[in-house]
Amino acid sequence: MLKNKSKYIYQLGFSLLILILVFSSTTLAQKRKPKPAPTTPSTPTEKAEPTKVPEPVKPPEPETLRPPETPLTVEEMERFVAIIETAMGDITVEFYPKVAPNHVRQFVWLARSGYFNGMSISRVLPKYIIQSGNPGSWEDTNSNKKKRFEIPKLKAEYDANIKHTRGALSLARPSGDPDGGTSHFSICAQKASSLDGQYSVFGNVIKGLEIVDAISAVPLAEATDKPVDRIEVKQIKIKEIEKPLETEPKQ
After folding, report:
1. Tens of pLDDT along the chain (251 residues)?
2. Is there a domain that residue 193 lies in?
3. How many domains does the chain have?
4. Would residue 227 count as lying in a domain?
5. Is residue 151 part of a domain?
């Protein structure tokens, strides 16, 4: 009986040992199990605004030049002379405001506004006529290219008594359009009777005819009426004289 009791106690102790081992391993496994990372409450994401495309920058409007609202009087224009400063020398002209008042007004306005500055002698008929006043002869760096000149066309102002004599200043125009002159002007190196009644004479050279002669004799590019070397018109100055010139228009 004692033997059976000892066997019973042994079996009970073994069972307790098994239970302790099982419990210990479970507890150890629970301790080793990683804890889940704490979760942070999610915040709502802001909706991204659409990217704004910048508007293209508009270039500034060009400066616009127009004829003066108050026209010059004939009496005022009688006191003016123009000095055409070229790379080959100066040419001084008087005006005929009684004969061609609108042509004189337009020429004076363009000269005072700097329109002729930096142009060139754009056309030469050898020992006959020289011509300038063409905006197409401005160089690319000329500031006038950034301006807008509103130049009206001029109605012809012919006078049967005013001829294209040597030194005559007249306004060029498109062929077939007698009222289409704007800014292109010609100076005669010789008498040009074929132009009488076709182009408006509005002045005459009073100083510097030798410069006109020299320009009219320059070499021209082959098969053209353009000088080989550019002859710049630096500027045209309008000068007021103390009293009107007493000379009469040449006939």
Report:
1. 545 555 555 565 556 656 555 555 555 455 555 555 556 555 656 666 778 788 888 878 899 999 999 999 999 999 999 999 999 999 999 999 999 999 999 999 999 999 999 999 999 999 999 999 999 999 999 999 999 999 999 999 999 999 999 999 999 999 999 999 999 999 999 999 999 999 999 999 999 999 999 999 999 999 999 999 999 999 999 999 987 765 567 66
2. yes
3. 1
4. yes
5. yes
CATH of the domain at 144: 2.40.100.10
DSSP the chain: -HHHHHHHHHHHHHHHHHHHHHHHHHHHHHHHSPPPPPPPPPPPPPPPPPPPPPPPPPPPPPEEE---SSPPPHHHHTTEEEEEEETTEEEEEEE-TTT-HHHHHHHHHHHHTTTTTTEE--EEETTTEEEE--GGGS-TT-GGGGEEE----B-----TT----TTEEEE---TT-TT-BSS-EEEESS--GGGTTTS-EEEEEEE-HHHHHHHHTS-B-TTSSSBSS--EEEEEEEEE-SS---PPPP-
pTM value is: 0.76
Q: What range defines the domain where residue 231 resides?
A: 79-240
